[in-house]
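Quick review question:
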């Protein structure tokens, strides 16, 4: 009888311990799943923010380029009208030289503006992704 009682008690302890281990495992899995879900949600939000920033940058670049193109075309028409009204070859050459110089300066200024817009757009669009990468590194380091 004592052996049967010991066997019964051991089986009950084993059953209780295995049930508790299963319950702990399920709880840990649910916590890990919740954390992974939160992490994925934040990653998706970072991607959306990044794409939004890149889109704004592309829109700004497009608007700036359109405005420059419009002004350059207007300046070119005005220069051609001035050239057509020139009274001498000397005057025509001076007008042409002046226009070419101003057109080149405007082009260089436009390229500088475009470069600044692209640089700012890249910086703004990478910021949310860099923040998520930093968060992931911190999480992995904390887990060590």
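Suggested answer, residue by residue:
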């Amino acid at each position: 009888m004592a052996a049967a009682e010991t066997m019964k008690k051991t089986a009950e302890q084993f059953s209780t311990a295995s049930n508790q281990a299963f319950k702990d495992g399920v709880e840990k899995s649910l916590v890990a799943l919740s954390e992974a879900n939160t992490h994925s949600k934040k990653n998706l939000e970072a991607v959306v923010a990044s794409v939004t920033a890149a889109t704004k940058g592309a829109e700004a670049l497009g608007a700036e380029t359109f405005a420059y193109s419009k002004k350059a075309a207007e300046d070119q028409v005005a220069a051609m009208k001035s050239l057509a009204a020139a009274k001498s070859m000397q005057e025509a050459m001076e007008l042409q030289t002046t226009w070419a110089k101003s057109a080149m300066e405007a082009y260089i200024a436009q390229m500088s503006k475009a470069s600044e817009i692209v640089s700012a757009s890249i910086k703004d669009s990478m910021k949310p992704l860099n923040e998520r990468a930093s968060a992931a590194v911190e999480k992995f380091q904390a887990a060590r």
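Why it works: Residues 2-84 form the longest helix (83 residues). Helices lie at 2-84, 89-143.
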